Amino acid sequence: MPTRSRPRTACCWFYARLFGPTYAAATAAVREMAEGWPADRPLNVLEVGAGYGSLTRHLLPLLPADRTEYVFTDVSRYFLDRAETEFAAYPFLRCDLFDLDRPPTAQGFDGRSADLVIAASVLHDMRQVRRTLAALRSVLAPGGVLLLVEQTTFHPWFDLVMGLQQGFDNFEDTELRQEHCLLDRAQWQQELTAAGFIRSELLTTTGGPASVGFDVLVAQGPAVQRRFAPEELRAFVAERLARHMVPAQLFALDELPLSPTGKVDRAALAQAGRRGSVRGRPARPPRTDRQRKLVDIWKEVLGLNQIDLADDFLELGGDSLLAARLAAQLQSAFGVPVPVRTVLEYTTVEALDGHLEQLLGPSEPITEER
Length: 370
Ligand SMILES: C[S@@+](CC[C@H](N)C(=O)[O-])C[C@H]1O[C@@H](n2cnc3c(N)ncnc32)[C@H](O)[C@@H]1O
Fold this sequence. Notes:
Blueprint lengths: L9 H26 L7 E6 L7 H4 L8 E7 L2 H10 L6 E5 L16 E7 L8 H10 L1 E12 L33 H10 L4 E4 L11 E7 L9 H11 L25 H10 L13 H14 L17 H15 L5 H6 L3 H12 L10
Parallel strand pairs: 1-2, 1-4, 2-3, 4-5
Antiparallel strand pairs: 5-7, 6-7
Helix pairs in contact: 8-9, 8-11
The protein binds S-adenosylmethionine.
């Protein structure tokens, strides 16, 4: 007897009903983009708030495996660990922490290199939607596209079910969102324009007040993006100012951190500077066990999410106090004396690793787990 194929559980059925048309619209848009993508151009995709990867799993099979880099991010490491296992069949996917409530530059995401940014059912969780939209525009490559899945209709019963979800009451921008965290279709389009996207389009024709109201929107970033070139700026300043006035460190921030009274929050500014990326590309992963340990210690001491093997301790905001902490932690991790002057002499993970190799011998290469 023929059996009707149907989702296995009530929950699956509910989700299929809820997201089916939405994901179909999102998938069609990404398929079209991937099919039209030039054969000689890498395709850089950044997914934010990717969570369980409900949309990701529909998109990955559509992307050209030989030239895609898909960065799967979330604020919680829990989801990244899951995704590494679930999406192991896609070697072009890598996972990273990314908090949408914090400036991308402070987290190593300042490359302005994403051709496609995907944000599915996450942006309404943001504290300040305008700030997050501006941040996402800033990581887009020229002409890059933001694809949003958002609930654009608020139903009172959300207070009972969705409203209890973590994040639903995070919003602080009460000048924009008074009663609840959702924006309607027109508001999203207005906010996208205000954030500097040159055009936006609604891809879902159903949805809206008559349904549960999940919509798909795409927005295109400007074709020309301003590029922050710290070395050029340093040279410019050095020609005009006395040597002692040339800043030791230059970094781009989307906005100045302000205290509740509206003044520049100098402590937060110093912190952002310490975390400011000087790289403009993702960190290369460690190759050996010892490099992995070194990277972990550096991250902890400097309070950073990412460390490249060639990042310079002092350029990342390391100072003599942090050098002393780093030296103590290295000493305890590797069981050899590490004076502070060693840390100040070998200022990259690569250099320090080379130095430790002289003392401890070679370290085990990290074997690929995929
Ligand atoms: C409703 S889930 C959506 C997950 C996924 N995009 C999907 O469609 O299945 C929201 C996700 O956003 C993440 N999230 C919440 N606040 C965030 C933030 N500030 N930055 C980045 N991700 C965040 C949560 O951890 C969660 O995985």
